[in-house]
Amino acid sequence: MDRDKIISAIKKAGKGIDQYLEIMDSFHSTDVSTDREFQRKFNSFYRIRQRTATWYKTYYSFMQGQKGNAPNFSTVLRYLHSELGRYEPSFSSKFVATHNPDLPIWDAFVLKNTGIKPPYYSDQKKLFKAEEQYKKIQSWYERHLMSDVGSLVVEIFNDIVPEHNRISKLKKIDFVLWQTRA
């Protein structure tokens, strides 16, 4: 990825960066299990739609309850599966990345840009395989952050975004990946 593509991606991410900062600013100071404004912003940013009231209540209550516990991807993935009967790798990753901004998210653009394939939804071992794939996503980010391109993304992001010091290096890469859709 060259400098011009990185600059373009960061500029396209401007609104999302502002939304992300609002979410992260309010996360620790509000009860996310009851704060509908936080939930609305989170749902909008991460495109959480068409879930049941039980799903939202379970998700946000667990998110609130895990504050201070450093939840990991596997714990959240398996909790949502056991409580809701749903396979939610994407929303599990967004949950843990909110608690720890140095953890990656799992979404279609990240998977495509990292070359990591999700397990088939019908696979009986999909939870275990998702945990393995998430570890691969983490490894990809570790390597990418140490690469010349990763360093360039962080450098350009820091030059362009005034609030760059409030965003983890990993999240800076995320914002560029989300906008790299070709």
Structure in words:
With 182 residues, the chain is an all-alpha fold. It contains 10 helices and no strands. It has helices at residues 3-12, 14-27, 36-46, 53-65, 73-84, 89-99, 108-114, 126-146, 148-160, 169-179. The longest helix is centred in the C-terminal third of the chain and has 21 residues, at 126-146.
Q: How would you describe the oligomerization state of the chains in this entry?
A: single chain
Major sheet characteristics: none
Our estimate of the beta-strand percent is: under 5%
Shape: globular
Distinct helical segment count: 10
What's the number of extended β-strand segments?
0
Compressed to H and E, one letter per element, the order equals HHHHHHHHHH
What's the helix and strand layout?
Layout: H1 3-12, H2 14-27, H3 36-46, H4 53-65, H5 73-84, H6 89-99, H7 108-114, H8 126-146, H9 148-160, H10 169-179
Helix pairs in contact: 1-9, 1-10, 2-3, 5-6, 9-10
Properties at a glance:
single chain, 182 residues, mainly alpha, 10 helices, globular
Structure in a nutshell:
This protein has helices at residues 3-12, 14-27, 36-46, 53-65, 73-84, 89-99, 108-114, 126-146, 148-160, 169-179. The protein has 182 residues and is mostly helical. α9 (148-160) packs across α10.
